[in-house]
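[job 4471] stage=fold_predict status=RUNNING
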Amino acid sequence: MSDVTGVRKAAVLMVQLGRERSAAVLSAMREGEIEEITSEIARLENIDSATADLVMEEFHNTMLARRYYSRGGLNFAREVLESSLGSDKAREAMARLTASLTEMPFQFLRRADPRILLSFLQDEHPQTIALVLSYTGAEQAAVILGGLKPDLQSDVAHRIALMERTSPESVRIVEKVFEKKLSSMLVQSGDGSKVGGLKPLVDIINRSDRTTERLILESLEQRNPELAELVRAQMFMFDDIVSLDDKAVQLVLRQVEVADIATALKGARDEVKRKVFANMSERASQNLEEEIALLGPVRLKTVEEAQAKVVHEIRQLDEAGQIVIQRGSEDELVE
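[job 4471] inference complete, writing structure tokens
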């Protein structure tokens, strides 16, 4: 069975289900899937009973795994299947189930131009926009969020932060709408999926321009001060360089181009500049000062882009465990 494709298995299953049942199943599928499966059915000739039995058995075991998973989670499903099917078949069924559960809805959106998505989303209900942005990549979502009207921005950001679990039925309804609008293949959701929450919102804000970032945070502050504080606690902005220890700043300076540092420091607070210069050699700091002076007037957008590069490098180092960013009320480090 390892050589049999998923489409071939689906075609065999449809034949085994009979005309009425297979028609009911196909009616719930997307157009691209229907075309693939019906084409494969047309290519089928004689199906030997052994292959048909194996396909039906595999389908049955996978559905059992899903049923047990919905009752008690992956570990519960694995234990029940092992006791009833044996370890090998249980392992295969759980592998198929796990693969299906990790498939996220709205995968087609990750290939779409965010400006096109913005044109489709900007007139939708804020909850719909929040749901869609929770499934898109953070960079795409940042572009879309930045293109929304300020009031809508804050409403959507607030909903993303408070969103937890959304029913598969609701996700499928929204998916179908965008399937028709964008004529793209969708990936269906498994059981209730965790979407939204603080992390997706922070990721989106971190990739937004400074104006959008400021508007979102100010709006959240007005709507829900406690939530705004939680978001800020998980963010790191350029001025927060002063909170890094000297070793961390030195590592960051080694990773970023001098031209980007110079541009980022244009218009920065004196405290930030002092922190940077204090962690450079005398010659390097002189060169940096000369570089800043040579830049002359710089557009605000250019400065913000350079600061975003520095912040991105800081976050990368933090994620890699090479530096530590103190957030919110985290305990101080003890030597």
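[job 4471] summary: The chain has three domains: 6-102, 107-233, 238-319.
[job 4471] exit 0
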